[in-house]
Amino acid sequence: MLVTDWGLVSACEGPPLRVLRRVLSTNPAEKGPDLGMMGARSVNRRHFHLSMLSFEAEAAVQAEPVPPVLPVLYLDDVMCAVMKPEKLLVHRTEIANGDTVFAVQCVREQLGRRVWPVHRLDRGTSGVLVFACDADTASRLGRIMMAGEVKKRYAAVVRGWLEESVDCRHPLSLPEDPYLKKRRGPSEPQDARTVFIERARGEAPVPSGRFETTRLGLVEAELFTGRRHQIRRHLKWLAHPVIGDATYGKGPLNRAVAQWFGADRLMLHCARMTLPHPVTGEEIDIRAPLVEGPFRSAVERLGWLEAYEELMNGPWREPPAQAQLLA
Questions:
Q1: Cβ atoms < 10 Å from Cβ of 192
Q2: Which domains, from first to last, does the chain contain?
């Protein structure tokens, strides 16, 4: 870059003068010919363009987000499981509006090898996320998932209290994607089953309708099918939406409770997953204790940490005999 009239440059759109001067001082090869030979108001356009590129590249490097380190919950030669935080996409998709960091990228960099995601969690959902470490294992795990040999248990903070356990079998059609504004796959309702068991109750000093407080519940959700947004949609259908659910919940209530929690996120967490090992067939039991973050803060504030531990560590079981069957 060659600039001899700083007043002229300061009148133009571009990087601050202090940045241009620093580029000149640290990149002598870009200074061009002797300034005195060029005249007081010379501007070498080619070198100016090169310096602009240098400035833009430097700014891009400085703005690049640092991938988070994801806690490893399970690891062997063929598969691994990590704790996915909220607001992180599993991989690049059409809804990745401006996202540049993805869970698959984080795990690849942590392990120093290529990995394959074998299931998904919504962007706002945290918890157990499983990857295969080679293509063959990815195929095996995919077949295990499709065969229904995987048990999944979630924890959700919901509005209201469940009066009893619920075996919800309300059919679900594929929803319209809120980002893409279109349906994918069959739109006819499909069988869907989730069992909900209330684990704890509490109240937040947040007005709700004619009431001065909002009832909140910690709910255990076990999936027996895998429809898109199944837990969130079933809870909406039951009139107990997940707190922080911008798609199926209530915006004003979400914002008010988030302010009280001091955290704004979807209050849904994959607490546990059990599946047969793709090579040995041995049962792998993966659990996701609450790490420091918005979900743990909310559970602590409501005094539910012990209830969460019981939810995560409790035995797998068939739906309770007294569960209310709703379809």
A1: 23
A2: 72-174+189-313 (3.30.2350.10)
pLDDT tens per residue, range 36-88? 444 444 445 555 454 555 555 555 445 567 888 999 999 999 999 999 999 99
Rounded CA gap, 130 and 324, in Å? 32
Between residues 49 and 304, which one has the greater pLDDT? 304
Encoded tokens for 187: 């739109």
Express each pLDDT in 87-131 by its tens digit.
999 977 655 566 778 899 999 999 999 999 999 899 999 999 999
Residues labelled catalytic: 122
Instruction: Say if strands 79-84 and 126-132 run parallel, antiparallel, or are unpaired.
Output: antiparallel
